[in-house]
From TrEMBL:
Keywords: Hydrolase. The keyword Hydrolase applies. One of its GO terms (molecular function) is hydrolase activity. This is Alpha/beta hydrolase-fold protein. It comes from Microbacterium panaciterrae. Belongs to the AB hydrolase superfamily. AB hydrolase 2 family.
Length: 220
């Protein structure tokens, strides 16, 4: 069983914070921090509150930045450390976003695996997930049958030249996501373990659809 980890609430970065706006939570990759994906805010749709979270662990020296879980556990069949990070995100939502009308998560690499695991842990709370260069953790969670029925929208983007995520995990994700979500996405020719302009444009359209569907209908 993995140790309990917590998000540093004082380090969370906010943009476009407003009452009753859909909330998009950004989860960075290994060796980075909350400032990394926060730089994507200009490329995201208007009409959203955006929060960029710091991962709870320091990456081991000499790697800079932070980590959601130990990198050596990338290929473990036991996803306990990924689940512990996801539970930390959900606890942060309890404390810092209890009034958000609807919530989506956008993660890169490690952050994407935590985003998907957060969805698996609480399918009713997370309304959409953007998975950039990430993967679905192996193993079964007790909430997976409910998620399979719910068909939450998930966008999965990855590059043909991404050699960071092991092929076995890519293959697992390619089987798991269509069975547990309403999957859309794209494989980008020549893209490495990174994010491209074309991918950001696709993410923008995906989030617009989520945002517009999330907004309550005006009373006539």
């Amino acid at each position: 069983m993995a140790d309990t980890v917590e998000i540093d609430r004082s380090a969370v970065r906010w943009a476009r914070r407003g009452e009753s706006l859909p909330l998009l939570v950004l989860l960075h990759g290994y060796g980075s921090d909350e400032r990394d994906l926060f730089s994507l805010v200009p490329f995201l749709p208007e009409g959203l509150t955006v929060a960029a979270l710091p991962a709870p662990l320091s990456a081991p020296w000499p790697m800079p930045g932070r980590s959601w879980y130990p990198i050596e556990e990338l290929e473990r069949r036991d996803p306990a450390s990924v689940t512990a990070a996801a539970d930390a995100v959900l606890r942060w939502l309890d404390a810092g976003a209890a009034d958000a009308p609807t919530i989506a998560l956008l993660g890169f690499s490690q952050g994407a695996s935590v985003a998907l695991q957060s969805l698996r842990r609480d399918p009713e709370r997370i309304a959409a997930v953007v998975n950039l260069s990430g993967y679905a953790a192996p193993g079964e969670l007790t909430e997976d049958p409910a998620l399979r029925l719910r068909r939450t929208p998930v966008f999965w983007g990855r590059g043909t030249n991404d050699d960071v995520i092991p092929p076995a995990l890519v293959a697992h994700t390619a089987q798991w996501l269509p069975d547990h979500s309403e999957l859309s996405g794209r494989v980008y020719q020549g893209l490495t373990h990174s994010v491209s302009e074309d991918e950001l444009a696709d993410v923008h359209r995906f989030l617009e659809r989520w945002r517009d569907g999330a907004r309550p209908q005006a009373e006539g």
